[in-house]
Amino acid sequence: MSDEPVPIIGGTGALGFGVALRLARAGTPVVIGSRDAGRAAESAAKLTEQLPDANVTGLENSEAAVQGPVVLLCVPFRNQSENLTNLKGALRPGQILVDATVPLAAAVSGRATRLLGVPQGSAGLQAAEMVPDGVDVVSALHTVSAATLGDLDHVLDEDILVAGDSVEAKKRVAQLIARIDGLRPVNAGRLEASKLIEGLTPLLIGINSRYKTHAGIRITGLQEELW
Amino acid sequence: MSDEPVPIIGGTGALGFGVALRLARAGTPVVIGSRDAGRAAESAAKLTEQLPDANVTGLENSEAAVQGPVVLLCVPFRNQSENLTNLKGALRPGQILVDATVPLAAAVSGRATRLLGVPQGSAGLQAAEMVPDGVDVVSALHTVSAATLGDLDHVLDEDILVAGDSVEAKKRVAQLIARIDGLRPVNAGRLEASKLIEGLTPLLIGINSRYKTHAGIRITGLQEELW
């Protein structure tokens, strides 16, 4: 997997771009996806300005999605369902979709410190319902701040909770996340745990606003070898 | 507050006893409450065996509840409502009830890695609905393991998320928690955040079973002074 490009749907947004930047710095080829191919190309150019050696391209989302086996979905919850509908013709069995979506009440003009109830139970479970057969959904990247990811001078030192029903798929995603210095992937169980994990984001958003910071989380008491 | 006793409803259980032990070691008088006065007295004796200088007594829950201004509720969710009903005649305006209850599905013979839906939104919000007028509810102590609390040789190094609608009450609870070496209280916002915080317990229970540990959580990116 090491040299396979990582498509990032919604890669022009703050979280997607931050992840793209960090993966690119780790030497991983990335494909920034956007609804608009022009905006994707602009973001790719912006990334190259910061990291001249980066292997990065910008493509329309459904063209991006076919470029690698592990596809990151970094879009606001408001657009998650629409994006997954648009990706139905692009995603292929054997691919992994990493869902980073959080159903913040902000999606319906409510507060970002509150979680919406999602009919399937969570954004991750909604993604699992919508992907084509044979695509594994892994839920991850909910607690790392887009702002700190996007600032390469910021030293990361935090955990990423990874949930999914396929152990193999979770391991591949964990390996990908572990390429980013300072991020430690932790196995958080089956995909239904995304219900609990997605709740961390509004909690951290509240803490960020109270303490004027970009908080993350760390699980204490874990051994060195986690996968 | 420093010398006022801390009543612990359900103090004979693993979490309540662990908190009693740690507070007692910090020099705080504790009152272990139980439905059964005899069992409360036994637990107090057990605590004194471990810490001969401890200031600890054991009383029936409603007698315990009147012994100090900050009352900890450390009972399983299955018994939370019954306990709060029994405390209605004991709790007085101006007291603070610290709710550590987590609505695990285990309460209804389901899995401890799943959260029940609570009509009020969370166990903390149910507590707020049930306490007498003038009693402030603060939600805390959901993520620290009863096993590590109860093992005084174990060095704690983790955070406690504290949520509540009264800033004053939250501060008092934070001061109490901070007396325990290795626990750092973090302001997690209004009481409704207990919905999100309570979800951390089933998540950690899953992590504990997967990694054979007693995990806790830590918020990264915070400054030194939090209150």
Structure description:
The structure is a homodimer of 227-residue chains. Chain A has nine helices and nine strands. In chain A, 36% of the residues lie in helices and 19% in strands. Chain A has 227 residues and is α/β, with parallel strands linked by helices. The first copy, chain A, starts with 5 loop residues before the first strand and ends in a 7-residue tail after the last strand. Chain A is globular and about 35 Å long. The interface between A and B is large, with 38 and 38 residues.
Task: Compile the SSE list and pairings.
2 copies of one chain form a homodimer.
Chain A lengths: L5 E4 L4 H12 L4 E5 L2 H14 L5 E5 H4 L5 E4 L3 H10 L9 E4 L23 H8 L5 E4 L6 H4 L8 E7 L2 H12 L4 E5 L6 H5 L1 H12 L4 E5 L7
Radius of gyration of chain A equals 16 Å
C-alpha geometry of chain A: globular
The stretches of 5 or more residues of chain A where confidence is low (pLDDT under 50) are none
H/E topology pattern of chain A: EHEHEHEHEHEHEHEHHE
Biggest interface and its residues per chain?
Answer: A-B, 38 and 38 residues
Q: Enumerate the strands of the largest sheet of chain A in spatial order, edge to edge or round the barrel.
A: 3-2-1-4-5-6-7-8
Structural class of chain A, by secondary structure, is alpha/beta
SS strand fraction of chain A: 15-25%
Helical residue percent of chain A?
A: 25-40%
Report, as a whole number of angstroms, the end-to-end distance of chain A.
17 Å
Mean pLDDT of chain A, nearest integer?
97
Counting copies of identical and different chains, the oligomeric state is: homodimer
Number of helices of chain A: 9
Number of strands of chain A: 9
Query: What characterizes the major β-sheet of chain A?
Result: 8 strands, mixed
